[in-house]
Structures are given as structure tokens and as C-alpha cells.
């Protein structure tokens, strides 16, 4: 018997496609709009959410039988706030400039709908192992969308990836810029993130007609 049963494996694979937290559940849209102008910020935010949701789901699952229902939301907020503080301190210690760029957005992980939603919908009713898989799966599904959006926004908006020029030098007009190409400054604005997410949703539903809602 493998480490993961088919049922457990779906906890990780489903959020990538048929149950993606951003494109299907429409959760966590705010961070997708706010921090995806740079690919590096998108990757760091994704890793941060993977840590917070994976560990948080396990902690809530372990405590699920001793948490009074009347204060469960408060307990969940304390758990996620503690994990976010750890992430923030690690970033300040090892990536200070990036921590300043992300700034308040790291703190807003505390109110990320995906995290509180998984605590409520899954961790409170399942064991630590399945809760861990659910947390990692949903965080990865969230992260994939952030990275895709960040990739296209930085590439088309700045002509760079992870801060390195990939289309040439826009000043010296080398590479693609020699053909008359110009960076699309609109890609760096938050509304363009929503448009990119919309395109991803369109592609996803075009490939899987079952996701199209009938009215």
C-alpha cells in the first residue's frame, strides 16, 4: 500500500484543477490582485501560505476535540496569527527587502479566506494527516495561480522575471525591444491581475465543461 490512498491523493490534486481555491471557489482573490506584479513576491507569498495552511490545519485538527465551539474562530485566528508572525520574522531575517515589499500583505494572510475556510470545513472534522494533505493541496492550488499571474504580469509589464531582464534592454533597444516592442505598463496595475485570473478561469472551463455553471 502506498503512502497515499487514492482518496488522500485527491486532497492534493483536486485544488490544482477541479476545486482550485481561486478559480473555482473564488477565495484569496485579494492577494492575487495585490502582490502579483512581481514573480518573486508571488513565489514567497505562495510558500508562506503553504507553511501557514499546512501547519495550521494540523494544529487545528489536533485541537479539534478540545476547542469549545463558541470560541473556535478565536482559536483559529490565534493559530494562524502565530504562524504568520513566524513567517514575517523569518522574512525579515533572511529577505528583508522582500519583506518590506510584501509588507502588510503577509499580515493579511491571517484573514485569507482559504485558510479560515479550510480550518472550518476540513481540519475541524478530520485527522492530522488528512488535514495536512488538504492544507498543502489547497495552498499549492492557490500558489500555482499566484505564480502564473505573477509570471505574466512581470514578463509583460516589466520585461523581467525574478528581476532579471529576459526580453532585452528597453533603453538600449536590444532583444525584443529592437523590433519596436514596449512593456505594457497596464500589466503592473491591480485590475490586470483580475483580467489574467479571468483568462485562467476561461481556459480552465474551456478544457473542462463540467465546471461551467448552468443558469
TrEMBL record:
Pfam families: Rnf-Nqr (PF02508). InterPro entries: NqrD, NqrDE/RnfAE. The keyword Transmembrane applies. The chain crosses the membrane at residues 43-62, 74-95, 101-119, 131-152, 185-203. It is a multi-pass membrane protein. It is found in: Cell membrane; Endomembrane system. Composed of six subunits; NqrA, NqrB, NqrC, NqrD, NqrE and NqrF. This is Na(+)-translocating NADH-quinone reductase subunit D. It comes from Pseudotenacibaculum haliotis. The lineage of its organism: Bacteria, Pseudomonadati, Bacteroidota, Flavobacteriia, Flavobacteriales. The gene is nqrD.
